[in-house]
Design goal:
By secondary structure, the protein is α+β, with helices and mostly antiparallel strands. The chain has 31 helices and 17 strands.
Length: 751
């Protein structure tokens, strides 16, 4: 295996230098994580980001796997004594796995085929003669083979056996297979049909009972939907190009004469395609399109998950968290600013004879613990509970009442992590705690549950489970390390995603912390059992110690760079604390003075940024959101209503939006475009606040269709109408940021 050649291929494919590829692979081979490489080894990689580093790794894994297969094929053919110089060149020059397999196909061990049986009867010489397509008496030549094998009774059997051999040759011809493969990619259609008597039980696949479209234009979500229907034995799927086009390709390649042999060659070609090649290439296309659909679906899930994990945190607030319910009441928990459970109770806001008592409990808890926020889960009874809480007159006005997406909270409630922390509490209390903590810090809480349970993907159970786990774990790891982790308050689950740690070291850190008290410096981490120099190197920069003895321990400056900051401070005759606190001192730093063989401008720039805002949170500031007070249920909806909502999921076919009626509405991709944004698909994100219009309501099927065609994707506070000013001439003046008013003015103008 020529690694240098692989490096060149990766560099060319990804549009980066070979030096960047080699440096990245060396770091990965040494055990460096992707977040560490992207953050702290910019000089070696020329500031490649996490995506680029991951691409280098993935391409190298793919190429190495292909090289491994290439060597296995060469060894197999050599063991058969059929490996020629020409064949070696062909195999070495194959640039794709399919090309490799096409070349190997004639040498691949086979079961006993029709062609093999014909060869056993001695018909291969006659097949070779036919395939040359020269002029000769084919009937007379065929009769010579009647005496070769007792099982051959007629010349028709001779011709049939010869055609079987030719059909196999054609099927194993690499050039022919590549041409048919290209035809499939360009012209094949995918057809789905419902099996007889399966229509009723397969109602959810109704759209695909009679469906046909070009394979090349079939979007990933539709492909996965049809495949699910096939797996559930509701649908049958066929992928194939027009049969006449496929056969014509084979005619053009293999028919070189027009004589008595031609009819047999035509029959052999048609048989080769119908019996072997079509199904073989269809299987390839199924695998290819499934992998493509998986990749797209996994990427959509990963993008949504990233937005959710990096959602704005409310921050450390004393809060009341409520897990709503009708029949069994609402579980209420009080959390302190660090998320510690102080008290739990049950209230019954939806039973009239208990509403007064419920109000008194809430008022009492808010006063007792000086609460700042009330978090309410958005599940069953969520809006009704929110409405009730807002009617409590004696509630301090400064308390924010916020609805929280509780998707996955029930999964956490029953998890080992929840049982470990709250062994004496039932799952409803654990769920309420999770709702509150999720509002305070979505990232810290969501890492405790399986990412697939959060509900921000499409067809996540239909895609490659190994690949989706790998991708989602990488997203979680990336988000955790982007934000950074306070080592003295972090959970075991959160610590396990820090670069270089993992579950074992995370557990050891917690145990050390419990036994010895809070960490006083980053260096103290080296006392944790099994915390070696390599793990410390990878993790230290992402761990924060807010009250550390060393001022840089609360920043993202890596300990390996502390000496540089110390030199900066010494050169300015000040302390590190002064350097971090005084902007005028930092302005005096001449950054080029500190460039060395190991540290360059990218790292020095990062250090200066950290000195300005040590340990800053890259997430956006929290914005309070509220649903329309007049809408609580689907029955309250009317077509044409404009409502505020929060995007809960983005897919390849559109976006789902929570408008506060216990059922998300769908903005189909065709309804995302609008006057103000050229390509909304690139910017609409999970957790985004939007203004939507109701276009369809189907209460029976619980479906709501929404549109953003006439509303810009903007934060709600910017989308609300603003009072229009009238000047002295009576002309209306519409403020530039009042998009709804502008729209109404345009409607009036062109009415």
């Amino acid at each position: 295996m020529n690694e240098t050649l692989l490096h060149k291929k990766i560099a060319l494919l990804l549009g980066i230098s070979q030096r960047q590829v080699i440096a990245t692979l060396n770091l990965l081979d040494e055990g460096a994580t992707i977040p560490f490489i992207a953050r702290y080894r910019k000089e070696l990689t020329d500031s490649m980001d996490e995506v680029q580093v991951a691409n280098v790794r993935d391409e190298m894994e793919r190429l190495r796997a292909m090289e491994k297969r290439r060597e296995a094929i060469l060894a197999s053919i050599e063991s058969q004594g059929k490996l020629s110089t020409e064949l070696i060149e062909l195999l070495r020059g194959a640039e794709s796995l399919s090309k490799l397999e096409d070349i190997y196909l004639p040498f691949k061990p086979k079961r006993r085929t029709r062609a093999a049986i014909a060869r056993e009867k001695g018909l291969e010489p006659f097949a070779q003669l036919l395939f040359k397509q020269q002029i000769f008496d084919i009937e007379k030549e065929a009769q010579l083979y009647l005496s070769i094998d007792k099982d051959i009774k007629t010349t028709d059997e001779v011709f049939s056996g010869a055609r079987d051999i030719i059909a196999e040759w054609v099927n194993e011809n690499a050039e022919a297979r590549e041409k048919i493969r290209e035809l499939f990619k360009e012209k094949a259609t995918i057809k789905s049909r419902a099996f007889k008597n399966k229509e009723e039980i397969g109602e959810k696949f109704k759209d695909y009972f009679e469906w046909e479209e070009l394979l090349i234009s079939c979007p990933s979500h539709r492909m996965l939907a049809m495949r699910r229907g096939e797996n559930e034995d509701i649908l049958s799927i066929i992928i194939a190009p027009p049969n006449d086009l496929a056969v014509e390709i084979l005619y053009r390649q293999f028919i070189i004469a027009n004589n008595s042999t031609t009819v047999h060659i035509r029959l052999a070609l048609e048989d080769s395609y119908d019996r072997m090649m079509q199904f073989s290439i269809e299987s390839e296309m199924r695998i290819f399109t499934k992998e493509l659909a998986d990749t797209k679906a996994i990427q959509v899930f990963a993008d949504n998950l990233r937005e959710l994990l990096l959602a704005s945190p409310l921050g450390q607030k004393a809060m009341l968290a409520i897990d709503p319910g009708f029949r069994t009441g609402c579980k209420v928990v009080v959390l302190d600013k660090q998320g510690k459970l102080l008290e739990d109770s049950v209230i019954y806001p939806h039973e009239k004879n208990k509403q007064f008592e419920t109000k008194q409990i809430i008022i009492s808890l808010c006063a007792k613990y000086k609460l700042e926020t009330i978090a309410i889960g958005n599940g069953t009874a969520g809006r009704e509970t929110e409405t009730f809480v807002r009617t409590i007159d004696n509630l301090p006005k400064e308390i924010n009442i916020i609805m929280v997406n509780e998707s996955g909270a029930s999964i956490y409630s029953a998890s080992e992590a929840a049982r470990e922390e709250f062994a004496d509490k039932d799952i409803t209390v654990r769920g309420a705690v999770s709702i509150g903590r999720r509002l305070a810090d979505p990232l810290a809480e969501l890492v405790k549950i399986d990412a697939k349970s959060i509900g921000v993907g499409q067809y996540q159970h239909d895609v490659d489970q190994i690949e989706i786990k790998k991708k989602l774990d990488e997203v979680v790891e990336s988000c955790v390390n982007i934000v950074g982790v306070e080592v003295n308050t972090a959970s075991k689950q959160l610590l396990s995603y820090v670069s270089g740690l993992g579950p074992v070291l995370a557990r050891n850190i917690i145990e050390y912390r419990n036994e010895n008290g809070p960490f006083k410096t980053r260096k103290e981490l080296l006392k944790v059992p099994r915390m070696g120099d390599k793990a410390y190197e990878q993790a230290a920069g992402f761990l924060r110690i807010h009250d550390s003895k060393h001022p840089l321990d609360k920043s993202a400056v890596h300990p390996e760079s502390y000496s540089i900051v110390e030199k900066m401070a010494a050169d300015l005759n000040c302390s590190i604390q002064q350097l971090m606190a005084e902007k005028e001192l930092r302005k005096k730093i001449i950054i080029s003075n500190y460039v060395s063989n190991k540290i360059g401008l990218p790292t020095l720039t990062d250090i200066l940024n950290e000195l300005e805002k040590p340990g800053r949170d890259p997430r956006k500031s929290f914005e309070v959101f509220a649903f329309d007070k007049s809408v609580h249920d689907m029955k309250d909806l009317r077509i044409g209503m404009r409502l505020p909502g929060i995007v809960t999921n983005v897919t390849n076919f559109g976006a789902f939006v929570d408008i506060g009626v216990h059922q998300d509405g769908l903005i189909h991709i065709s309804q995302l475009s609008n006057t103000f944004i050229d390509d909304p698909n690139k910017i609409i994100k999970v957790q985004q606040q939007v203004m939507v219009m109701v276009t369809e309501i189907d209460i029976q099927r619980k479906r709501i269709a929404l549109s953003m065609k006439e509303e810009a994707i903007l934060p709600i506070q910017k989308a609300k109408p603003i009072n229009i000013v009238v000047n002295k001439n009576g002309k209306k003046i519409i403020p530039e940021n009042d998009y709804i008013a502008q729209l109404e003015a345009l409607r009036e103008k062109f009415k």
